[in-house]
């Protein structure tokens, strides 16, 4: 018995410590978001911090920016991911051009913080593209280049997420497309289908369940991510994760409780969308589309 369980017993102390700190931190944050903060004399549970967060103009502006960036990033990444998956399927790049397939996987290996810094070097008014545009005479000075980084609309974040998440979407869709035999297209041509008809009536319906799951994953991630908005966003309005971080580090204990309320709102949203994505995946799996 000792030989069978000795490795489990050896990691048990570290496992218990990790679980205690993780769930203990969650429980402590939840209690403080409801106003239970004995260190400052608050020992009554209430919803005032949630109400305060939802009614403040700064929260509403941050929510608008967060949803806008998440929606645009999801839409663009989904469209580009579909195109990349169709290219992989059409030209069979995984078998015929494996180096192109690995090149597509490259953005997945780059951390989001590094990707955001890369966009600063490339898209800022002092970046690579601005200097190249000035060199070839397209603009009079690098400062004339459009503001794409640290802009109030959030285009820098949208571009970064699109570049990062489109390969993720494509690599989730490609296994579904790989199950479709080449004979399907020949059969469709017999019935007079053109390439676009084949894509719209055969390929897109086949990848729809996986596409919905991938899009939900991208949306939830971009809705709650911190690194890229912190690096590429503006001071006001900030995305909700950055806004919550600003409140938490402001030095005011009441602001800290409000920040934890925002974090828990994001946690609930993440859980709901994660559950929806899981149900969609299970539904597609039961139907035979992995």
TrEMBL record:
Family: Belongs to the binding-protein-dependent transport system permease family.
Domain of life of the native organism: Bacteria
Bilayer topology: Multi-pass membrane protein
Keyword terms of this UniProt record: Membrane, Transmembrane, Transmembrane helix, Transport
SUPFAM superfamilies, alphabetized: MetI-like
Taxon lineage: Bacteria, Bacillati, Bacillota, Bacilli, Bacillales
UniProt domain ABC transmembrane type-1: residue ranges: 63-277
BP GO annotations: transmembrane transport
Record-annotated membrane-spanning stretches: 69-91, 153-177, 228-248, 260-281
Cross-referenced InterPro entries: MetI-like, MetI-like_sf, Sugar_ABC_transporter
Recorded GO CC terms: plasma membrane
Localization in the cell: Cell membrane; Membrane
Signal peptide region: none
The protein's name in its UniProt record: ABC transporter permease
């Amino acid at each position: 018995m000792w030989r069978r369980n000795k490795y489990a017993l050896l990691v048990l102390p570290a496992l218990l410590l990790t679980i205690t700190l993780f769930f203990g931190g969650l429980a402590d944050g939840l209690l403080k978001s409801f106003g239970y903060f004995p260190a400052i004399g608050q020992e009554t549970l209430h919803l005032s911090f949630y109400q305060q967060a939802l009614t403040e103009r700064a929260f509403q502006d941050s929510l608008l920016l967060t949803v806008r960036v998440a929606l645009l990033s999801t839409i663009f990444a989904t469209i580009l991911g579909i195109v990349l998956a169709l290219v992989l399927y059409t030209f069979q790049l995984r078998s015929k051009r494996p180096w192109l397939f690995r090149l597509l996987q490259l953005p997945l290996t780059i951390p989001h913080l590094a990707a955001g810094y890369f966009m600063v070097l490339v898209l800022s008014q002092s970046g690579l593209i601005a200097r190249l545009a000035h060199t070839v005479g397209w603009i009079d000075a690098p400062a004339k280049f459009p503001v794409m980084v640290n802009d109030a609309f959030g285009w820098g974040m949208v571009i970064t997420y699109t570049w990062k998440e489109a390969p993720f979407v494509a690599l989730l869709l490609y296994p579904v497309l790989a199950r479709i035999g080449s004979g399907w297209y020949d059969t469709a041509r017999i019935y007079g289908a053109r390439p676009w008809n084949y894509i719209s009536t055969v390929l897109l319906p086949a990848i729809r369940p996986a596409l919905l799951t991938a899009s939900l994953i991208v949306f939830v991630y971009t809705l709650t991510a911190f690194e890229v908005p912190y690096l590429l966003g503006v001071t006001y309005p900030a995305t909700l994760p950055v806004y919550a971080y600003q409140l938490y580090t402001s030095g005011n204990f009441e602001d800290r409780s409000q920040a934890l309320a925002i974090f828990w709102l994001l946690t609930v949203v993440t859980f709901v969308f994660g559950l929806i994505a899981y149900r969609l995946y299970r539904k597609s799996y039961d139907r035979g589309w992995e």
